[in-house]
Amino acid sequence: MAENKKLVEAITSMDEDFAQWYTDVVKKAELCDYSSVKGCMIIKPAGYAIWEQIQRQLDDAFKKTGVENVYMPMFIPESLLQKEKDHVEGFAPEVAWVTHGGLEPLQERMCVRPTSETLFCDFYANEIQSYRDLPKLYNQWCSVVRWEKTTRPFLRSREFLWQEGHTAHATADEAEERTILMLNVYADFLKDVLAIPVVKGQKTDKEKFAGAEATYTVEALMHDGKALQSGTSHNFGDGFAKAFGIQYTDKDNTLKYVHQTSWGMTTRLIGAVIMVHGDNSGLKLPPKVAPVQIMIVPIQQKKEGVLDKAYELRDRLIEKGFRVKVDDSDKSPGWKFSECEMRGVPFRIEIGPKDIENGKCIFVRRDTREKIDVALSDVETKAAELLDVIQRDMYEAARAHLESHTYTAANWEEFCDTINNKPGFVKAMWCGNQECEDKIKDELSATSRCMPFEQEQISDKCVCCGKAAKKMIYWGRAY
Amino acid sequence: MAENKKLVEAITSMDEDFAQWYTDVVKKAELCDYSSVKGCMIIKPAGYAIWEQIQRQLDDAFKKTGVENVYMPMFIPESLLQKEKDHVEGFAPEVAWVTHGGLEPLQERMCVRPTSETLFCDFYANEIQSYRDLPKLYNQWCSVVRWEKTTRPFLRSREFLWQEGHTAHATADEAEERTILMLNVYADFLKDVLAIPVVKGQKTDKEKFAGAEATYTVEALMHDGKALQSGTSHNFGDGFAKAFGIQYTDKDNTLKYVHQTSWGMTTRLIGAVIMVHGDNSGLKLPPKVAPVQIMIVPIQQKKEGVLDKAYELRDRLIEKGFRVKVDDSDKSPGWKFSECEMRGVPFRIEIGPKDIENGKCIFVRRDTREKIDVALSDVETKAAELLDVIQRDMYEAARAHLESHTYTAANWEEFCDTINNKPGFVKAMWCGNQECEDKIKDELSATSRCMPFEQEQISDKCVCCGKAAKKMIYWGRAY
């Protein structure tokens, strides 16, 4: 048990130093690593395998709504980036510039895409002529670059992986409908696959995307009570269409501008999974996103028949569609248990000579550590049941945490006290003026996370200035 | 039939102008498009869907051999690129340089990866300490940039998508074994999925990868008799390991250098599929890689019951795992047929009121245009059979073309005559001197494609200089 303890001791306790705990888990679970390229990370196999699960399931959900995948160039000529005024102001300060191709200077410098609205608009301006060409529902999976000053694995890095959907529609209504549809796809994905509950709502003007008419967001709450923006969906109206001249001939033979949306999710979701579900033993992966759902750990594996039985169980479970491995390395069982826990495998199966004699094995849950005796003949059925239960219980635990860490504040004193002393979301009223948002950010380091779709009337006065309130806001400190 | 004809007439005949035919197919089948970013292409939904099929099946084949996916940064600091002498010489002239991040100049400029050997080596130097850490079998899917002067869709563009595998091994033998294993994975994939036969062999020193000890290749023959390098696998020996200091402590407690490989395939494979299988009606996709395997075209679709029956057939076929669509647009059936052909759908199902009355439908093969009456009750079984037959027949046709366009030449006169007048591969002997390769390239625009694993003794003299022959080479003009 000594070596077992060593692995666990290497992690800082989350209550002591949450930031260090996070870094330790990322490192010990071998999710990612720093690289020689400042601010860029290396996503290692255990981390990338989670991203592959996310990608495949999210992509399936997109395709069900009619979305098609494409691939656009990674470079944006400077003149193209500048076409939409708000957009260039938002992104120009944080892009990487390519100035030379081969041995020669470029005639016009290009940035590495920080996001691809401008490229899609340029493409749509050529592609779209008639109402018959609409809607366009395109998405791409790629990496983007934003020259951040301070970076953290998965949460903020100079290059990150994401998907960006870009759609063009005949009418404003259709664009709004698509914006909300994709926000709901995100919320459902977070809930059903990542077991993460979210608050859905609209960003204030201060917090919305550069060039958007409206930005919607799904906000999740991490274990330490900080918020994480986990996906956004933007309605551009016809702003980009006017800047790029994207027009179509409608049925009535008049020329009209299209209405556009974009929406994206990133590798930051992996950070969310770590910080919502993890504990002092490491990562906890919801079964639906776990690259390895079940780890079989043979006990006394050198005894005749043990490994054979482990492989047999594995094959039976793989046959049923589960993602299963046998840890047949020469490490001790205790070490293997710790490793399963560190890496967040939803449950492990322990099986040794005595178990085989008794025709059973032991399921050990990662989330509750509960041990369950299971007859060898029932393994497939019980595994399916347990994975469902773990998925549900993990969501339920996260939901309870979100609920118990959501507070209300009716006045400035309550508000300051809650923000400063109770990490979590604070629901409070807002007058609609950016000055109050600025003050709250300056004095309390808290931001408006969103104007939730489900509005409540906490009071009738702005929590900051005391003037008439227009909206209830979820406030919080955020990553 | 007039509109039908129009669509087809828009393609240049392949016998008249193969290059223009290729461009026309790429455009009309909506596979890709030029972008405002010079030398970079936009991969459109129909093209990207083929890439997704390639990716998924190739990725599965990699994983079966123990490969894991990772993601490395897209930037390479200049000092890192320069660590291996041959490598930097090969790539530095054709990379794009990032010189500014945000508003500030970088302390050290970075290139956008043209390939990632240097990044993986830098990573491995930190990751690998002991023989227990070996082998490392990593791969990544990403885009790379090479500043090409002349570009062609899928075949050569400044940015392209690919996978790059990078492995590290304890011994030279293991590295060589992995190099050949991955070459065989490529050859099998080309044969079994893309229905493309290849010649397997080793590149000459002149043609090998910058920094490699040995480069192996799979060479395919396009319809016009030109060769296309379709995948390469490199053995680096310990050259990179020495340049980057990648050492491990072996079981005997001595410090040793690792031996490395890399191997890659790109979106150029889509170009290969077009140019091996296409005809004057457009694309022909092998069933295993076709995003839509079966298109159902309803005839007189406004008549009651026709569309319902079409959807019913679709659902039955999807249920069996086929990729199927119904073309229920308001275009004429003739137009739909042409479109199916242009897009290369392996076969279409025609179904109209009379067919339904007779309890049948018609399968029309894309490759042979054969029409087959099929009882509605047999659709699933017959579809499965037909897709298998088409896959096999397409491979067989490509194999026959390769065979009938592979020539031998015993002396310089024969060699010149064949290269100039008979497009295809020419098997001829070589003395091993680069001077002869250079002369052949200068005078005949032909290159050594590979030293095939299956050697033959065409004569005992070099086809160029007449000195003693060392190797038989496949020569050809290439893309």
Q: Can you offer a commentary on this structure?
A:
The structure is a homodimer of 479-residue chains. By secondary structure, the first copy, chain A, is of the alpha+beta class. Chain A folds into three domains: 15-277, BirA Bifunctional Protein, domain 2; 292-388, Anticodon-binding domain (Rossmann fold), CATH 3.40.50.800; 406-476, C-terminal domain of ProRS (Translation Initiation Factor IF3, 2-Layer Sandwich). Chain A is built from 15 helices and 23 strands. Chain A has helices spanning 2-9, 18-28, 45-64, 78-81, 85-91, 117-127, 172-192, 239-244, 268-277, 306-319, 333-343, 353-357, 379-404, 412-421, 434-444, and strands at residues 32-34, 41-43, 68-69, 75-77, 96-101, 104-112, 136-145, 159-169, 199-202, 214-221, 227-237, 247-249, 255-257, 259-266, 294-298, 324-326, 347-351, 360-365, 371-375, 406-408, 425-430, 447-452, 471-476. In chain A, strands 3-7-8-14-11-10-9-22-23-21-20 form an eleven-stranded mixed β-sheet, sandwiched between helices. A five-stranded mixed β-sheet of chain A has the order 16-15-17-18-19, sandwiched between helices. In chain A, helix 1 packs parallel to helix 11 and helix 3 packs across helix 7 (172-192). Chain A is globular, with a radius of gyration of 25 Å. In chain A, 50% of the residues are buried. Chains A and B meet through strand 2, helix 3, strand 3, strand 4 and strand 5 of A and strand 2, helix 3, strand 3, strand 4 and strand 5 of B. Strand 5 (96-101) of chain A pairs antiparallel with strand 5 (96-101) of chain B.
